[in-house]
Design brief:
Helix content: 40-55%
Strand content: 15-25%
Radius of gyration: 30 Å
Number of strands: 4
Shape: rod-shaped
Largest sheet: 4 strands, antiparallel
Distance between the termini: 101 Å
Number of helices: 3
């Protein structure tokens, strides 16, 4: 009986501890999928500095083509439609509210309404 117990103890010591190759590959696959999803999610959302920078560039281009003086653009997109609010002056010194996109692929602005100074 003692020899049986000793043999069991020796067998347990000889068994290797750790993960099998399949288990490691499955873990690596799951981690890769999670990282990929988070990368896609965070890459699509520009930060406030990028929004302001790109919208201001688009405002300058639009203002030059329309004879306006660019004033400023906001650094956020509250309704998540790809546009942020900007302001420009026309030649009569009226303030104009505009919406300018902050996407490089589709630079555009549109006039919303006029405000008097």
């Amino acid at each position: 009986m003692n020899t049986n117990i000793l043999q069991n103890i020796r067998l347990k010591k000889n068994q290797k501890k750790g993960f099998t190759l399949i288990e490691l590959l499955v873990m690596l696959l799951v981690i890769s999928i999670i990282v990929g999803i988070f990368t896609i999610l965070f890459r699509r959302q520009p930060n406030s500095r990028q929004i302001k920078e790109l919208a201001t560039q688009n405002l300058k281009v639009f203002s030059e083509s329309q004879g306006l003086e660019p004033i400023r653009c906001n650094d956020n997109d509250p309704d998540k439609n790809g546009y942020t609010n900007c302001t420009a002056k026309n030649q009569k010194t009226e303030l104009l509210d505009l919406e300018c996109t902050y996407k490089k692929q589709q630079p555009s602005c549109q006039v919303l309404e006029k405000k008097s100074e």
